[in-house]
Amino acid sequence: MSSTNDGSSHAATRAFWTTAAGEGKILDTALSDPPGTSAATTDTEVTVQSLYSGVSRGTESLVFHGRVPASEHQSMRAPFQQGDFPWPVKYGYANVGRVVSGPEGLAGKTVFCLYPHQQRYKVPASAVTPLPPGLPAARAILAANMETAVNGLWDAMPGVGDRIAVVGLGVVGLLVAWLASRIPGTHVIALDTNSGREAVARKLGLNFASQSSFDDFDLVIHASGQSAGLATALGLAGLEATVVEMSWYGDQPVNAPLGAAFHPRRLTLKSSQVGGISPLRQPRWDYRRRLILALDLLQDPVLDALISAETSFEQMPQTMAQILAPGDDTLCHRIRY
Fold first, then answer.
1. Which of 230, 279, 300, 322 is most buried, by CB atoms within 10 Å?
2. Taking a C-beta distance cutoff of 8 angstroms, is the pair 158, 219 a contact?
């Protein structure tokens, strides 16, 4: 195993932990070997110095405010989470860093990892994915969101020429709309009641609207995380159309208006969740191949528009309380190490 003399053998590092509802702290955290490794197999692990991490506003807001239902405590665990819900818990899954110690083929590489907000960490070498040439580390924090968007479109199965509505323009909704608009012949409308989303939608080349009188879309994708958004999505779908639900509501009750035109139009309401790959693709696709695709799709500089702001790791306790508060207009917030 090759390594650099930069302190990668230090036994401790610092990480952001959610410690109570709406509160978090930066705490000393052990820099321990990843599960399943030993002195005899240290060539299969890497030590990574974080460069950036991204705050996934939707999911991390639920975690930060203690709104993960008890029934989902196990399924909602992040790959390298420490602690148990509701708290104290170290949570996150959008980290980009530099390998400071590891196998020769990875040492010195800039990599993406589904790791929480932490200055330095050890993981199995298989858990990191090198960035493709030309992709800036600062933009690569969007990889997990791009994976979710790709997976959502795989579930939605849009076709050439489809009329597609995307309701809810957070990071995932914007990425879904951007990807769908690149399919030949599609007509995509990006809808959000927040007029502040128009500027970023326009930067991505999308047709923005706060509402639509057209109600005959071939495909509708909902990503607002609100019952009202789901009602809007159902109302936009045409005869025999599919509505794909990409929102995750945590413990929030959801009112789904399944009266009105839902049955006469024979609509399909389909869930999509990034933890599972469409059965139609599973014979050929695995999670690593999907992540490599997501990183490659991030090459377009226009996607920098999805990153609202950047603050330092040391500011995280204040930053998280601010950007995860109800009504905040943040898209993806970047943490700098």
1. 230
2. yes
Q: What would the two tokens of residue 232 be?
A: 């809007």
Amino acid at 21: A
Structure tokens, 151: 């997976």
| Cβ proximity of 91 and 79 under 8 Å | no
Distance, in Å, from the CA atom of 99 to the CA atom of 130, rounded to the nearest integer, reads: 10
Question: What are 291's two structure tokens?
Answer: 């992540």
Q: How many residues does the chain have?
A: 337
Q: CB within 8 A of 35, min separation 6: which ones?
A: none
| DSSP β-ladder status, 45-55 and 110-113 | unpaired
DSSP state of 164: E
Range list of β-strands (E), 31-180 = 45-55, 82-83, 89-90, 95-102, 110-113, 120-124, 128-130, 163-167
What is the percent of the chain where pLDDT is above 70? Answer: 94
Q: What is the pLDDT of residue 6?
A: 41
